[in-house]
Amino acid sequence: MKKFIAFVTKEFNHIFRDTRTLVVLFGMPIAQLLLFGFAITTEVSNAKIAIYDPEPSQFSNQLTQKLTSSDFFSLAQNIQKSSDIDAVLKASKAKLVVVYPKDFETKFMNGSANIQLIADGSDPNLASILTASASAIIMTWTKGKMPIETQIETINNEVRWHYNPSLKSASTFVPGVVTIILMLVSAMLTSISITREKELGTIEILLVSPLNPAMIIIGKVTPFIILSLLNAVIILGAAQVIFDVPINGSVLLLLLESLLFIIVSLGLGVLISTVSQTQQTALMLSLFALMLPTILLSGFIFPISNMPMVLQVISNVVPAKWFLIIIKSIMLKGVGITFVWKETMILVFMALFFIGLSIKKFKIRFQ
Amino acid sequence: MRTLFFILQKEFLQIFRDKSMLPIIFVLPIVQMIILTFAADFELKQIKYVYIDNDNTQETKELIHRFQSSVYFEEVGRTHDFKGGMDFLDRNKATLLLRIPQGFTKDLQNSKTASLMIDVNSIDGLAATLSYTYAQGIIGQMQDEIRMEWNGLPEKIALPVSIHPRYWYNTEMEYKNLMVPGILALLVTMVAMFLSSMNLVREKEIGTIEQINVTPIRKVHFLLGKLIPFWIIALFELTFGLVVGKLLFDIPMEGSLPLLYGFTAIYLLVVLGIGLWISTITDTQQQAMFIAWFFIVIFILMSGLFTPVENMPSWAQEITRANPIAYMVKVIRAILLKGSGFSDVKFEFLWITIYAFLVNTFALLSYSKRN
Predict the structure, then answer these.
(1) CA–CA gap between residue B43 and residue B334 (Å, rounded)
(2) B90/A32 Cβ within 8 A
(3) Which of A338, A354, B107, B175 has its CA 20 to 30 A from that of A278?
(4) Smallest Cβ distance to B286: which of A164, A192, A278?
(5) DSSP β-bridge partners for residue A97
(6) What does the alpha-carbon distance between residue B91 and residue B129 come to, in Å, rounded to a whole number?
(7) pLDDT value at position A314?
(8) Is B45 within 8 Å of A306 when comparing Cβ atoms?
(9) How confident is the model at residue B242 (pLDDT cuts 50, 70, 90)?
(10) In chain B, where do the E strands start and end?
(11) How many CB atoms are located within 10 Å of the residue A338 CB?
């Protein structure tokens, strides 16, 4: 036991000596959190629009005023001739062009005014949201212009947003940031730190020491377990203090599940280190085989239900997918273990599988 | 010139000697591109919904029928009370709950206004907003038709203004047309940044840098020798990616390819310069990798690749001016999708050129042959 403690102390010294890595390790999640919370919102605001109004009239000026004074849009420019529409969109000066007909006011009185909304369709989602918002504003204005006696049937939608009422992107992304940082610290750092000993040759010295291989591995990963958990706690705390992202469920359960996920990631990290000879290979393998699937196929940024069948099937072997479901359920929906036991069992199996495999590989490698 | 040639020869030998690096440089990014393009689909199809219809009239049945036949929605069930509906949302079985209260049709007939309740799981804000937008579309259309039918009026009298949305440059509203060029920009950046940032520091870590430092090689030559191979590899990667994108995804190529290559060539100097600079200020590959990772993640998130720059607050939009990836993503999309010419992207050209000059000067200054 004393030998083991000495070994863990050595590992900690390795980590704490490298302050630059530590700064990145703790600084990155906070930076990401701030970005997601403040800069990256899913709500459209101040989108640039251009107006083409060949014959300005009182009505069209009023409507333009309504459009540009809303939070959604800000006026980029008034277009003078129809051939300029293409130029404005091509130079990305505006994302949407509102085209009035000639004689808008007369046509309005006759009940046949057409307004064209020309959107830059290169981003289809943004384009749909922009045209939908512009249509809504135009409709509201139109109804206000009509005499009361011709009031018409209107269906009101009362919408309620659940689990994330203010549509904060922080709530959407905090679970993802936690997942990524756990994966990064546990799998990527572990694999690189073990491979480093291989590359520099110091692993031989460890292997001839009285510590047995299992002890070496456990000693190697212990500091990373502690670092990961600490990081997770900091992120969750910061999210709560700065952005009011709640933890509605049990904190203890959340930490236990995090620990489980950390163990799975460590298993993967050790596995990668057994198959790579240089740090560069270990890095590239963790990057492309672990980090990208974790970011892309876990449902962190892209909804899994949108993916083609093949990718949906593949996403089942990505541990982060299951962990994200668990952490979102506990944090935002506030549900207990009865709602996530299936996902938990899957992670337990994955942990056993990866650890078993890497122990086997490790023994063969260093006999 | 001869010195540079020999250094280049050495660098290429080193890169191609490592058998495990070749597939990592060429195969993995392409695999990533294919997976990403399929995965990075924000387009919402088949939003799962559940409904409660307490009114049960012809009109409400018609409304439900419209949801059922919409390509955007997929029905997962019908319940009779709010609690049952929320259970679907709690268990992730549905994203949207539509509630039609009793007396809905009567209200619409008598007082001209009636209300529907829509509950949305908004953990993913964008998906929630879009789901609601689509639901609004269906309900709005139903409302217009009810107006015409009940009042026996042609549409134009019912409302004096009609709106015609048009989507230019991407009339089919294909999401992959947006994503493939963006992902290509991302892959080229990642390969260039990681390879260049880990290369020089590796020589430091292993100790071979001392041998180079004692030779008469000038530091400009040495750094150029580190830059040029990755510059060539990254441009090759762009070509490879464009071919795959064209063959596999049939992405549009409206603009001029030489213009795109010209811009990428300058842009890569920025990325490689940042990589080199990281390499000169770090001591181990691990540090270099972490710092490179830090920059890349922040640059990517703020680049407009996954979330439109338009969605950011204006101060954050100002910050993206310092983000090289944002320029690349914008320009590659403008050229490939919209066919923008040089005059449309001249400011981006100017900025990226200044950037390239600054970053490389910086890298050159911070590298010294003496420790």
Answers:
(1) 20
(2) no
(3) A354
(4) A192
(5) A50, A118
(6) 20
(7) 87
(8) yes
(9) very high
(10) 47-53, 73-78, 96-100, 113-121, 161-168
(11) 6
